Amino acid sequence: MPLHVTDYTWTQTESTVHISVPLKGAKAGGVDIVSTEEYLKVHFPPFLFEAFLFEPVDDDRSTAKVGNGVAVFTLPKKTRNVWEHLMITADDKETKREIRERALLKRQQKLSAESKQKAEKQQAEKKYALVTMMKLEEEERDRIQKMKDAEREKTTAELAAWRLRQKQEAQQKQNHQIQQGGATKTPGNRQMEIGKNKQGHRNSKKEKIQTRLPPPRPPGNIRVTFTPRVFPTALRESRVSEEEEWLRRQAAARRAVSTEVEELQDLTEEERNPDWLKQKGDKCFANGDYVGAVNAYSLGIRLNRQIPALYSNRAACQLKLRNLHKAIEDSSKALDLLTPAVPANAAARVRASVRRGSAFCQLQLYAEGLQDYEAALQIDPHNEALREDARIIRNIIQGSSGDDET
After folding, report:
1. Predicted pLDDT of residue 272
2. Using CA atoms in the order 336, 337, 340, 342, what is the torsion angle rounded to 10 degrees?
């Protein structure tokens, strides 16, 4: 059975009730709070505090602050008056049970509504991001097409001008020849001479081309050899098999593209490319649009769940958005895919480990965070920034007072 907390304190005004519940060494993350208009529960095993309130309060405006070993609640009253007691004086277990069940039911309904609202918001954001990306790509295609049309018109105009100049120069040359030979030759003779000159020029040109042609090559077979794949690793530390396995897995991952995502049926071939979506997410991240980057990476993951960079980059976005548990989940998935551990994926493993370690530290799970930072240091032992971060986390662990505040 839980141990009931009796050393709480409370004060009131005509409009507000203040309740202070000691947490007896419990951390903020281990405290479960249920609050409704007529009921308040604070559960931190093995201790339990329950208050069946004397009169209803405004649950929507109520606040709670947990930290420094105490939970402080501010409950605005629905009716301005002074309460005789904090809790109802009835000792009827059935009445209290009904109040408790109503409170738990209301909490479940509230959580369900919040979850549904969050899902609808995420779906709307995904749809908006998809429409926006398609619109941007359409504008980019239109811009490129306009550039092509302008260049084509320019080239056509230049070609027409060049042809006109050539025609004018040929006409001037012909007129000049006619003027030079007109004093001694009749028009018929001049025409015959021009024909003979053209025929002689063609024969001479044909003979020159034939003299320049090389003789036919003799038949034969050509052997083709390939340079073996050699990794820059000392022979006594050779990891050729692991490197080959990593390259094989990367090649297989590039082929593992899903085409069964319903909302992508109307997209172009380029828009179904996970690499294109990754580049799109990278641009959004660089511009500070972290939600747009998450949507792009998530779309890429739905198309291909075997590319570690999509998970690692989405973890970086989740860190910016303070979605710390999601950042841990994405970093862990990236590390699972970055196997076997070889020099080719060392930098990616460092980034994924640091992102997961940072999320752990922001959740005040410093021991877990330190493990990830030390794992990154083992991969990149000369990284002074990592070494300094690990030292700071180690000092926090050694000098932590154990107090948490939210």
Report:
1. 77
2. -110
